[in-house]
Amino acid sequence: MKDQVDYWLSITESDVHSMHLLFDGKEYLNAGFYCHLITEKALKANYNAFTGDVPPKIHDLEKLAKLGGIIDILSEKQLKLLERLQPFNIDGRYPSHKRKVADTLNKEICKNIMSETEELLCWIKKRLGKSQ
């Protein structure tokens, strides 16, 4: 199962790079979507390490944290981040909701979300003994 954990964490690296490129291009909604992807993959790595099973094909961050046994040890800030990122997965991709999600972002807000995402990723890596 170690290979699965490494797999999920390794693909977050290119996602972090893409997130920064999108931010630099002022594509804040897409950068936010990548924050969701990064968090989802980190939570799937955690799930795999916790259960020894392949993560479920779901995108609900809070549910992944629960299934991975870390929901009760996440800080209030981390829990709020999961809640804040969830709309980027579905709502941010559909025309009826996309504008609404995009309107919640500006450069500073997006930068903050990105920073918190990277902090959570580092926290999960550290928990899994994978910190750099």
**Biggest sheet, in brief?**
none
- The gyration radius over C-alpha positions equals 14 Å
CATH architecture: Up-down Bundle
What is the class in the CATH system? Mainly Alpha
Mean pLDDT: 93
Gap between N and C termini, in Å? 20 Å
The CATH H-level homologous superfamily: Nucleotidyltransferases  domain 2
Which spans have pLDDT < 50 for at least 5 consecutive residues? Answer: none
Tell me about this structure.
The structure is a single chain. With 132 residues, the chain is mainly alpha-helical. The chain has a single domain, classed as Four Helix Bundle (Hemerythrin (Met), subunit A), CATH 1.20.120. The protein has six helices and no strands. Helix 1 (2-24) packs antiparallel against helix 2, helix 1 packs antiparallel against helix 6 and helix 2 runs parallel beside helix 3 (61-67). The mean pLDDT is 93.
In brief, what are we looking at here?
With 132 residues, this protein is mainly alpha-helical. The chain is built from six helices and no strands.
